[in-house]
Amino acid sequence: MPHPLFTPEIKLMLAEVNSAGLREFCESLHPATVAEALEEDFTPEQLWEVLSQANIRTQASIFEYLPPAMQVEMAEKARPQMGQLLTKMSHDDRVDLLKRLPGRVAESVMRLVDEADRKDIATLFNYGENTVGALMTTDYAWLPATATAAEAIDQLRAQAPDKETIYYVYVVDDAARRVDGSLAPRRLLGVITLRDLILAPRHALVRDLMETDIATLRYDQEQQAVAQLFARYDFIAAPVVDDNFGLLGIVTHDDVLDLVQREATENLQRQAGVGPIEGAYLDANFWTVWWNRGKWLAFLFVLQMFTINVMTHFESDLERVTFLMVFVPLCLSVGGNAGSQAATLVIRALALEEIRARDWLRVFRRELLMAAALAAGLGLLSIVRTYFFTPESVLVKLPPGFFWNLNWAITLAVMGICLCGAVIGAMLPLGIKSLGWDPALMSTPFIATLSDVLGIVIFFNFVALFFL
Fold first, then answer.
1. Any idea what the CATH number is for the domain that residue 365 is in?
2. CATH code for position 192
3. At which of 66, 97, 126 does a domain end?
4. How confident is the model at residue 2, as a pLDDT?
5. Are 150 and 260 within one domain?
6. Can you tell me the mean pLDDT for 173-178?
7. Which end of the chain is more exposed for a tag (fewer CB within 10 A), N or C?
8. 207 lies in which domain range?
9. Pick from 374, 356, 381: which is nearest to 423 by CA?
10. CATH number of residue 95's parent domain
11. Does 448 lie in the same domain as 338?
12. What pLDDT was estimated at residue 178?
């Protein structure tokens, strides 16, 4: 949420052209706090006026925390300033920004940066969407293996202002030229932490201090691999390499946090059958959201129509047992709830790679036993519910001697629906995963709808068994 207390002060300083006050505001607070204060009630022109009072590095830091839509508006309004800002932004963040800009705006901004930055941006642009290469930055600290600890610290002191992190320093060999004359990425030899360098003897060689057993990422891996690697090793950064172990860039912990948040949001949206939706809830395009939600609702609506066919099949018998319809919501809710539970557990296990699609038989056996146990527990609860709390309006309509028929019909229906819902909930994500799709894809609403359809079938068959 924006800081409302800052807004009047900033507007007053803008009205008074208080450059010193605006500079202190930008440089004394954390960039995220400044960006949060500027998120609302300011035009792009006013935002540029505020930022221009700070040094270029601070401007870039604040700009990176602004909402994407606001970044695009500012880039369109002040292209010359944007060219300067791009040179100081994180390499991965500036590529993300350029991808969001209209083509003509991106081209005009690109003409304002130097050749080295244009080449770097073009390189990152070429990596496929949702790959590690698209997530990485080329802004890393490196050292030659032949440097001493003292020389390495001096080199890092010179590199530090322009690098995203210097806690992990990558040791590389000399760049080799390809056949076409271009320089190949420097081969990754090892990694050393800043702590190790500071504690090492001044004349110790980097090659003797570095760690050569390195966990790396390939540029063409899916981005999910990044979160798994960071979770396993508690990294704050990880190197990205090519087929020849050439160092292409690094992925940092802040990018991983953004990735995890984005993936979690997309998974929740897919589970609900509404996504993924780009942008914040209030900023997302109305018709895009309408289409994403409407197409799945329409599909589920058509699927739900099968319940009409089932009920039509039993129509002639329904007139004799209409008093039992009060138990339908009770029975159907069990299937949807049991299915959602199973689906959530299986989807999470798939995401953490605790299970794979090929483990379907093991999952089926386990969930079948679990569903049977759950169904037994709910069956006992159903007997109690039906025996002691059946409405009087239902009891008076029961044929003589059919009280226990009612108990068994409802109890067995609940057990059957619970068993069916839980097994479907466990198997459906595995089936979707085996097809190469996201297992979270509309699992919850689809399972709920499918459980309703099968639940109606199960319910009326038990009613027919004990009453008809």
1. 1.10.357.20
2. 3.10.580.10
3. 126
4. 47
5. yes
6. 64
7. N
8. 142-269
9. 374
10. 1.25.60.10
11. yes
12. 53
What mean pLDDT is predicted for residues 267-276?
Answer: 68
Domain end marker among 126, 159, 181: 126
Q: Is residue 103 part of a domain?
A: yes
Same-domain status, 60 and 185:
no
Q: Whole-angstrom Cα distance, residue 267 to residue 440?
A: 6
- What mean pLDDT do residues 122-127 have? 86
- Per residue, the 3-state secondary structure of the chain, as one string, reads CCCCCHHHHHHHHHHCCCHHHHHHHHHHCCHHHHHHHCCCCCCHHHHHHHHCCCCHHHHHHHHHHCCHHHHHHHHHHCHHHHHHHHCCCCHHHHHHHHHHCCHHHHHHHHCCCCHHHHHHHHHHHCCCCCEHHHHCECCCCEEECCCEHHHHHHHHHHHHHHCCCCCEEEEECCCCECCCCCECCCEEEEEEEHHHHHHCCCCCEHHHHCECCCCCEECCCECHHHHHHHHHHCCCEEEEECCCCEEEEEEEHHHHHHHHHHHHHHHHHHHCCCCCCCCCCCCCCHHHHHHHHHHHHHHHHHHHCHHHHHHHHCHHHHCCCHHHHHHHHHHHHHHHHHHHHHHHHHHHHHHCCCCCHHHHHHHHHHHHHHHHHHHHHHHHHHHHHHHHHCCHHHHCCCCCCCHHHHHHHHHHHHHHHHHHHHHHHHHHHHHHHHCCCCCCCCHHHHHHHHHHHHHHHHHHHHHHHHHC
Count how many domains the chain has. 3
**Percentage of the chain surpassing pLDDT 70?**
87
| Chain segment 55-98, per-residue pLDDT in tens | 988 999 999 999 888 888 888 876 677 888 888 888 888 888 88
| In a domain? residue 298 | no
Least confident of 16-25, 70-79, 177-186, 361-370: 177-186
Q: 363-410, pLDDT tens digit by residue?
A: 889 888 988 888 888 888 877 877 777 676 666 666 666 677 777 888
In a domain, 105, yes or no: yes
Same domain as 344, residue 461: yes
Residue 383 and residue 412 in one domain: yes
Residue 300 lies in a domain: no
